Amino acid sequence: MKNTRHAFKDSVLQEEFSNKGYVVVNLAEPGELKNLAEAYQDLYPNKEQGCVFSCHDTDFERKLKAQNLLRRVIGEKALNLFDAYKFVSGAFVAKHPGETSVVSPHTDLTFVDNKQYSAVAVWTPLTELTSEAGRLHILAGSHHYTPLCGSNLYRNYTDIAISSMTEIDLEIGQAVCYDMRTIHASPANKSLSPRIAGNCVFIPDEADLWHITRQDGKILIYSVDNDFYSRQCGDEASNQELLRNYRVIHSEPFESDLLENEFQRNNSQPFGFFQRVIKRLGIV
Ligand SMILES: O=C(O)CCC(=O)C(=O)O
């Protein structure tokens, strides 16, 4: 689905972003990001496992501290690239060595009405990003087709091999800005040290911020604020309490996903269809 509201000030970046669902940019001087990597180590000195997102941290104070640090550095830099966008949330993403650190293909949550706007995630490595350490992979053009995503309205894209997606090679100082509807993933960290990244989300100044949830056979769209995303912890059951403070602005029946039906009609391997469409458009 194409929208007309520009995300980027630069028209060349905007064109590429609209077509592929992502662009690589020079975000900061490497030295400016070094402090963030050190701050991460101070906040999270203990060894962990898997791929850990600080936005799911149950220590609220620490989660907020992490977000504020990211906002000050990545947030400030990224806002210069955008055409009147605002910061919504930010998290460290620590991919620890080992097979459990795979992040399967997914889209991020739907933060805005995508008929009008794109919500953009700015993902930047804070430690050296080798192929071994697990780079971000993106399915170019997939943002044109993916449906709404909520915290308990998740789609299964595991039939897409991560190796068939575009591997995004970034130096420290660069970032990939992707439309949150774009399918992305990262393989396991096979190196010996954690791979740390920062990921911040931005939406247009005038856009209503959404939280989508599935409840009693319905899809509910809530109008929320930044505070909601700072407080929520990824666990939908505990979010229900928080959501009482916000208004439902739209509700619709949850029916079997139209895209999935389309896939089934076209191919016994659902995402073969997806990849054929994208290939036909010449996006990859
Ligand atoms: O950092 C990674 O490897 C994955 C990040 C990701 O998928 C996300 O932030 O949604």
TrEMBL record:
| Residues in the signal sequence | none
Q: Which UniProt keywords apply?
A: Dioxygenase, Oxidoreductase
Question: Which SUPFAM superfamilies does its entry note?
Answer: Clavaminate synthase-like (SSF51197)
- Highest rank taxon of the organism: Bacteria
Keyword Oxidoreductase attached: yes
> Sorted alphabetically, which PANTHER family does this protein's record hold?
ECTOINE DIOXYGENASE, PHYTANOYL-COA DIOXYGENASE DOMAIN CONTAINING 1
Name by which UniProt lists this protein: Phytanoyl-CoA dioxygenase family protein
